[in-house]
Each structure stands twice: as C-alpha cells, then as structure tokens.
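Thread: quick sanity check before group meeting

JM: Hey all, I'm pulling together slides for Thursday and realized we never actually wrote out the predicted structure for the chain we discussed last week. Dropping the sequence here so it's in one place. If anyone has concerns about the input, flag it before I start.
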Amino acid sequence: MAHFSSAGSAACYARILNAWAQRIREGDARALARAATGIENRDVEAMDALRELTPFGGHARIVGITGPPGAGKSTLVDGLVSAIRRSGKTVAVLAVDPSSRATGGAILGDRIRMQQHHSDPGIFIRSMATRGEGGGLARATPDLVRLMDTAGRDYVIIETVGAGQDEIRIAELAQVTVVMLVPGMGDDVQAIKAGIMEIADIFVINKSDEPGADRVEHELQAALLLAEGPRPSVIRTVATEGTGIAELLKEIDGSLTVVARKRGWQAKAPAPQVAIAIDHLGVAVKSLAEAIPFYESLGLRVGHRETVSKEKVHVAMLPTGTAGSAPRIELLEPTAEDSPISNFLEKRGPGLHHIALRVPDLAGAVELLRSSGARLLNEPRTGAGGHRYVFVHPASTGGVLLELIQESA
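JM (edit): ok, ran it. Output follows.
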C-alpha cells in the first residue's frame, strides 16, 4: 500500500477508508476499542482496518516504561498521563500484564487501572495479557502501538510486565525507554547486572523519599561511569505524590526530540553502499583444548591464537579457506569469572556468541548507526589481531550480537 506524505494526500485517502477505519480517524473511542480487541484476537477485519490506517501513522511519541514488579510503574504512568493531558496532548496507554491462569486474560485490568481518567476522551487505556509471550510484551503490542499511532494519539505509553535480561523487546519498540528502580527491594543492583542498563535511555529512581534511595543512585551512577557510549539520565520521583513527574516528561520530550532529529537526518541522507563481508563467527566454548580437536577433525587448522586481556578471553582463529579474506571461526574461552564470555556461558551455554562483519569504513558505519538510533555497546577499539571493532546490541539487529570490524588496508 502506498504511503502518503502530505496532508492533502492523507485527506484524499480518508475518503476511501472503510467505515470502521473512518470512525477511528474521527476519534470514536468505541471503534478504537473494538479494533484493539480485534487486533489482539488477529481478527481479519481489524487487521484490514489497521492496514487501511497505515498512511496516517508515524507521528506518535512512543515511550516504554519498564522495571521490576512493585517499582510503581502504573502510578508513574498515571502521573505521566495527567501531565501529558495538562499540556493539551492525547495519549494511549498499553499496559502489559501477566496472564490469568484461569481465563488467559490480563490479571490486572483497565477497569481497575487509572479510574480517574475513564471519562477523558483524550486518554485511551488498554490492558493486555502476555498470553505466554516472552520479552515483557504481548504478541499484539507492536500492532496496537501502530493502531494508536494511526488513530492520531500524540503519545503512546507502553508499560511492560517487568524487567529482566531477556525483556529487551521494549527497546526495539519504543523510541525512548524508561527503566525504573526503587530502594529496598534487592532488585536494583541485580537489575543493573542483568543488562537493563543496555536498554535504558532514562533511569527513574522511584520512591526516592524512602531510605536507600541515595545508595541506589550512587550505585547506578557508579555503574554508568563504567558504561560505554552515551549515559542515560537519572531522574528521582515519588510517583504517589507527583514529585519529579514534570521533570521526567521534560526529559522524555528532550530524548524524543533527539530521536526525531536523527530520523529526519536519516531520511535526507541515504545510506552509502559499502562492501560488507562476514569476517568470522564467534563461538563461546568452555575450553579451547576440548573444542579445537573437533574443528581439526573437519580439516580446519588454528591460524592464530592470543589472549585479549581487556576482554578477559583466550582466542583461537580457524580460517575456513586459504584466501586471506575467507571467513573464520573464532573460538572464545573465558579467562576470568567476570568475563563477558563467562556470563554468556553461564546463561546460555556454549554456542554462537556473535557474528562479525568486515566493513571498509568503521568510523563511517558507526556514525551511520548512531544517526539511525542503533544501540552501540562500545566505542571503536582494538581487539584480537589488532583489528578495530565495535559491538551492536541485539536489540538493534533483530536478536543477534553483531560485531563490526575495520577492513584491513
């Protein structure tokens, strides 16, 4: 289906919308609710209506709110909704809740959530059950975000079930991801270690009037000092009292403005065509001595071995061909318990750790990735074999850790 970039084209297209889609565009809350239900149930008519509405999308500000259970996510979202409405903007809230074992529906529900907003037509609230879906979201969440966007909502707020190492889908869907922490739950340090820092654009320390808030912020700031790349901002709130909500919304809007500028730049500057090739496949193993004989039985031979102290890893490179540019298999054995490879082995076991691509201009590739909003895990640096490299987070690549390597001159 063609996409219409001008208001005039969209107006012409509106005249041929089906009745359901037309009512949604006119602000009919019942039609929108019915479409949301249909999309959750993968109803053919509802999906058709969503496709017809597609040309009107691309304007909503999409904000993800995640954090451990009990952090006060719903209360914070409630405060944000009120602040957004005071600014004259409309908002949709998609709250993802655990599924009821009895009914399969959301345990919490929009009937008991944010009751004060039920009569405001500028607010649409929808609770969704995960229905066994992982990653902190429901299967239909992306389509419901699209629906709210095409329905003309200024903001779409997604509240996830919780936060954990595997719950990174919110970072793929939201333009800005807010990660909440609270004192006294024992989850703050664990959450940071679990990799949540990699998905956060903004950290919120909620219940910051309680003992332990200073310690949480101190540990968080210390962790951020060690992190690569841009540092997320840290906002302290007391959501039950509305404290810090205005500051948080201002920070969210500032981050969204940066996203909009990046997207505008990207649209005007097409990506250059560059020659990219697979350099190697990184495989995490518990022991090089045990792994290498298998590959040697296939006729491969170790072409290079070294220890990369910065990454705390022993490396063995096995070329798959005689040409210098032939792809290689890189076996990775940890040298310390806190090595990234040790963490990988503990969580996933031996297996494919990353894919490495060889690019002719690493600096240019990094600049392009940043302009498109991709999440980089480090600044370009020197690794095994003296090559310059950078890692790209799986949330930006479709689920696999990607390494980009500067092609040798």
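AS: nice. The radius of gyration is 24 Å. The chain has 14 helices and 15 strands.
JM: adding both to the slides.
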